[in-house]
Amino acid sequence: MVSNYELSCALERLTKEVKILGAKIEMMSGNLTRQLIEQIKGLSFRAGANLPSLLMLSVSEQKTLTVLRGGRGSVTADDIAVASHRARAVESMHLNELYRRGIVLKERRNRQVFFTLKEEYRAER
Description:
The structure is a single chain. The chain is mostly helical. The protein has helices at 4-43, 52-55, 59-70, 77-84, 88-100; strands at 104-109, 112-117. It has 2 domains: 1-43; 52-121, Arc Repressor Mutant, subunit A. It is built from 5 helices and 2 strands.
């Protein structure tokens, strides 16, 4: 049988270890928060001070824009979907959002819709 003294010593040890673990978790979460902030800053699309609309793009929209920049001329949502390995509907949604923001031009030819990146957004700055 274990005495009360031994139990209290064990409880004290456990309490100290829990406090140490709590401090380590706080330190780790602070480091992770700083790392995440740095990663988010790195993901922000910075094309130039005169292009504020690009700063507000989501990561998904940035990926669509990057694929669009890699293409030549007018492309469809299907073309972007193949290059980005995402669904056509997802790319269509992002392309239409880029159109609403004035970053791409949209042209309907019969049943197909073609998107073209505006000249001022073509060159990375």
